[in-house]
Amino acid sequence: MTPLNTTGSWIVENTSDRNALNIHQVPLKTKLTPGTALLRHLTSLIGPSDSRVVSGIYYLKDKPPFTAGYTFIAVVEDVVLPTKDFPEGCPIVKKGDIVAAMTRINGWQKYSIYDITDPKYNLVVVPFSITPFDPNGISILEVSSLVLNSATAYGMVHHSNTPLKAGDSVLVLSAAGTVGATLCQLLRHEFPEVTVYGTCSREKTEFVESLGAIAIDYKTKDFVVETSRLTGGKGLAAVYDGVGELDRSWKALSPTGRLVIFGFSLETKTPPFLTIAKVLTKGALPCGRSSYFYGISQHRESDPNKYTADMNVLFDYLQKRIVVPKIDRIFGFEDAKLGLEYYESGK
Known about the structure:
Layout: E1 6-12, E2 21-27, E3 36-43, H1 48-55, E4 66-67, E5 71-80, E6 98-102, E7 111-115, E8 124-125, H2 140-159, E9 169-172, H3 178-190, E10 195-200, H4 205-210, E11 214-217, H5 223-230, E12 236-241, H6 246-252, E13 253-262, H7 272-284, E14 290-294, H8 296-302, H9 304-319, H10 336-345
Parallel strand pairs: 9-10, 9-12, 10-11, 12-13, 13-14
Antiparallel strand pairs: 1-2, 1-4, 3-5, 3-7, 5-6, 6-8
Helix pairs in contact: 2-3, 2-9, 5-6, 8-9
C-alpha cells in the first residue's frame, strides 16, 4: 500500500474551550517497527467518557494536545510482529483482523500506529465478520458499543462481588442510558428470578420495559420511596448508580444491600476522587450494607486477560442477541464534534 505520511485526527488543544477541538492533519510514521501495526479506524463510540475527557474532568496523565476518542474499532492494514514472544494478554494480530480497543484517547482519527505488545492497552480481535450498517447482520456500531458500555455493565454484574438470589430486587439508575440499558439486559438474562427496576424519563418508559425492567419515572417519583413500596419495605439487594445519587441510592438498599457505582455524572460538581472516597467510606461502615466502585479502565489494565474473556462472552451474547446495543444516531468523522454536542444535549 502507499505509505501514509499524515492522518486526520480530532485534536484537543484546550480542555476548557470546546472551540479548541478540531480536525488536524498529524504526522504518521511511514515505516512500521517490530511489535507495531497500522490500523485504519472504522468507528468510535461517542458517550460520557468522551465528554469528560474532552472537558478536562476525567483524570488523564496525557495533557493537551491529544487526540480525542475513548474507544475505537479498526482493521489491521499492516503489521510487523515483535522479534520476541508476545506479552501475556496481547493477542497475535494479522493483516485484515478487525480489532477493538479502549485507549481513553486516540480513537478519533483515521489511521494510527499501534503498539501491539502493550498489555495495558491490548487489542481484542473480533471473532466474526461484521457489516458497516446492514440491519440484517451484526453492525460494526453494535460491536463498538461493547468495548466500553457493555463491558462495564458485564463487569458490574460479574466482578463487583454482588451476590444476587431469587426474589431479590435491584435498581439501575438511568436505565435507558448507554450502560444502564445493557445492565438491564444482562441482569434479566443472568438472574431471571431477580426483579429489575430502572429509572428513566416518561418518554423512555417503553424502551426500558422492553429491556425486561420495571420503569420508574424519576421526574415524578422518588425512587427511594417507590422501590420501598414496590419491595414491601424490604429495600434493594443492589443499586447500580452511574449518575451520582449516592446518598439516596444508599437509602434505597436493604439492610444487606450493595451499592455499585460506576462512571461520574456530568451534572455532579463533586471531584471524582471525593466521590470514590465517599463510596469507600460508606462501604467500610459496620451496618451490613456495602459499596463498590467499578472502573472498567482499571479492570482492563490490571487484568487484560479477564477483560478479553469478558469481551468474548459479550461477542457471543451479541451474536445470540442477548445483548443488543441501541444506536441512537450516526455521525461521520467530520461531524464528531456535532456528535459530542448531541450527546451532551441529552436528546
